[in-house]
Write a structure and sequence with these properties.
Structural class: alpha+beta
CATH topology of the largest domain: Beta-lactamase
Radius of gyration: 21 Å
Number of helices: 14
Shape: globular
Order of helices and strands: HHHEEEEHEEEHHHHHHEEHHEHEEEH
Distance between the termini: 44 Å
CATH class of the largest domain: Alpha Beta
Number of domains: 3
Length: 453
C-alpha cells in the first residue's frame, strides 16, 4: 500500500478526502498500536510520520480508555474514531455498520516446541550472520531512517538468529500491512484443499451479476494475482481509491466491488489492495459465521497447526477481514508462517494445510511482473527479480511484503526463512540491506546441513 505523500496530494486536490484519510489512518494506527501492539502513541506516530510525510504534524490522534479506542483529527478537528474489541483489534467506526463481535478470551499458552526457546533470544552463532543482521538494523547517516523492529532468521525449521529493537520482543505483535495478503493466500489455499473454492472460477459478487456486466468474468485467481482490471491502482496520486476504501468506507469490499473496469481482466498486472479485499470477503462468505467464524477457522486450520501465537485479524464495519493490510503477529509467528511455504503447504511435522503445489503456484510470476498470488517472486525476467538474485537472494525465493518494510523472505532450496519488520522509508524500504542478510542466512543454512551430514 503506497500512502507516502498520498495524504498531501489529497489535501491539495480534495481537502475533505485528504483530511478524512489522514484522520482515519491516525485513529486506526493509534488504536491498534496501543491495544494490540502494546507500544503506544509514540510507535504509531513514528509510522504515521513516514506514511503522511510533511502533513504528519497536521494529523493528530488520542487514545481513549472507556470504551477503549482512539480518535483521529486533522487540524485539530476530530474526523475519525476507531474502537477496540479484544481478540479482534480495532476498526474505524461508521454509522450503520455491523455490530462488533463479542470479545475473545485470551488464548492459553502454546506448548513448547523446537522452533525457538520460550523467553530466550537466539543469538547468531556465525559472525557473518550476526554482521548481516547488524547491517539491517544499522542506520545510514545520509539515508532516510529504517527503524527496523525485528529480524528472525530460520533455517531447517529452527530459529538460528534474531534481534529486536527497544520495546519489541519475541511476543510483540507487529502490524502486517500487505503481508496480510499472504495470509489471505493461505486461507484461500485451505478452502481449495477442502474443495470449497476454485481459483479459476468467477468471483461472482452480487454487484457484478447484472446482464452484460464486464466484471462478471473476473476470477478469484485474477484478484489474487492483481490482474482484475479494476480501476483501483495504488499509485500514491491524489484520490487513490485504495486509501478511500481503507479509511473512509465501512464496507471496504462493497466499495471495491463498485469500481469499474479500466482494462480487460487478466490483461495487465496492477497491484491493488482492492483485489485482496474482494477475495477476503468471499472467503468469509464460504467460511461463515462472520468475524468469529473467520477467526475460529484461521486459528484451527492455520495458526494452531503452525504454533503461531498472538495473531490478531482486524475486520471492517461489514465484518470482512481487512486482508490487504491489517493483521498483527510477532516476528516469530510470521517466520513460522513462512515455513509453511518451504514445505509445499506442510507443517514441520507433516500435517497438510495447503494443497500440493500451492506454494509453487503462489510464487509463479504474473504477466511478466515479479508478483505471484499474494507473494512477490524472483520467478521470471523482471529486472528487480534479477537484481535480487545477483545480490544473494536465490532464484527460487519469494516473499510476503508490506509497506514500510514488513517482509517474510522464503528460500525453499536453502530451507531458509527471514522475517524482517520495521517502519522504513521509501523508496526501497531498506531492502538493500536485507539482501546480504538473505545471502548470509543461505550460507549458514548450508553449513548447518553440512554438519548434520
Amino acid at each position: 500500500m503506497l500512502l507516502v505523500l498520498l495524504v498531501a496530494g489529497l489535501v491539495a486536490v480534495r481537502p475533505d478526502r485528504g483530511a478524512r484519510v489522514g484522520a482515519g489512518l491516525a485513529a486506526h494506527l493509534a488504536c491498534s498500536m496501543h491495544y494490540v501492539g502494546a507500544r503506544g502513541l509514540a510507535a504509531s506516530q513514528e509510522m504515521l510520520d513516514v506514511m503522511a510525510g510533511p502533513l504528519s504534524p497536521l494529523i493528530g490522534s488520542r487514545i481513549e480508555e472507556a470504551p477503549p479506542g482512539a480518535s483521529g483529527s486533522f487540524l485539530g478537528i476530530t474526523l475519525a474514531h476507531a474502537s477496540y474489541t479484544p481478540g479482534y483489534g480495532c476498526r474505524l467506526d461508521y454509522p450503520g455498520q455491523a455490530p462488533a463481535p463479542a470479545a475473545l478470551p485470551a488464548p492459553p499458552p502454546a506448548a513448547a516446541d523446537e522452533f525457538a526457546p520460550a523467553g530466550q533470544l537466539v543469538a547468531a552463532a556465525s559472525p557473518a550472520l550476526a554482521q548481516a543482521i547488524e547491517g539491517v538494523f544499522a542506520e545510514h547517516a545520509r539515508s532516510a531512517p529504517k527503524h527496523v523492529k525485528a529480524v528472525v532468521v530460520v533455517a531447517h525449521d529452527r530459529v538460528i538468529a534474531e534481534r529486536y529493537a527497544g520495546g519489541v520482543g519475541p511476543d510483540t505483535p507487529l502490524l502486517s500491512w500487505s503481508v496480510a495478503k499472504s495470509l489471505v493466500n493461505a486461507l484461500a489455499g485451505i478452502l481449495v484443499r477442502e474443495g470449497r473454492l476454485a481459483p479459476g472460477l468467477p468471483l461472482s459478487p452480487p454487484e457484478w451479476r447484472s446482464p452484460g456486466d464486464p466484471r462478471a468474468g473476473i476470477t478469484v485467481e485474477d484478484l489474487m494475482r492483481m490482474q482484475s482490471g479494476l480501476a483501483a491502482l495504488e499509485s500514491g496520486r491524489p484520490g487513490d481509491p485504495v486509501a478511500l476504501m481503507e479509511f473512509t468506507h465501512a464496507d471496504m469490499a462493497g466499495y471495491a466491488a463498485s469500481l469499474p473496469l479500466h482494462v480487460p481482466p487478466a490483461s495487465k498486472f496492477e497491484y491493488t489492495s482492492a483485489d485482496t479485499v474482494l477475495v477476503a470477503r468471499r472467503l468469509g462468505e464460504l467460511i461463515g459465521g462472520g468475524p468469529a467464524g473467520v477467526h475460529a477457522f484461521a486459528e484451527r486450520e492455520l495458526f494452531a497447526p503452525l504454533h503461531m501465537q498472538h495473531v490478531t485479524l482486524e475486520f471492517d464495519g461489514a465484518g470482512t477481514f481487512i486482508g490487504c493490510s491489517f493483521a498483527w503477529a510477532p516476528a516469530r509467528a510470521y517466520a513460522r508462517f513462512g515455513t509453511l511455504y518451504l514445505h509445499d503447504g506442510l507443517t514441520h511435522d507433516g500435517q497438510r494445510i495447503l494443497p500440493p503445489g500451492w506454494a509453487a503456484w503462489s510464487a509463479r510470476s504474473t504477466l511478466g511482473a515479479p508478483y505471484g498470488a499474494g507473494f512477490w517472486t524472483n520467478d521470471g525476467d523482471d529486472r528487480f527479480a534479477k537484481l535480487r538474485i545477483r545480490n544473494g537472494f536465490p532464484a527460487d525465493g519469494f516473499f510476503a511484503s508490506g509497506v514500510l518494510g514488513q517482509r517474510i523472505y522464503i528460500v525453499p532450496s536453502a530451507q531458509v526463512v527471514v522475517a524482517r519488520f520495521g517502519d522504513s522509508t521509501p523508496p526501497d524500504y531498506g531492502i538493500e540491506d536485507d539482501l546480504p542478510l538473505i545471502a548470509a542466512a543461505v550460507r549458514e543454512s548450508g553449513r548447518i546441513l553440512g554438519e548434520r551430514e
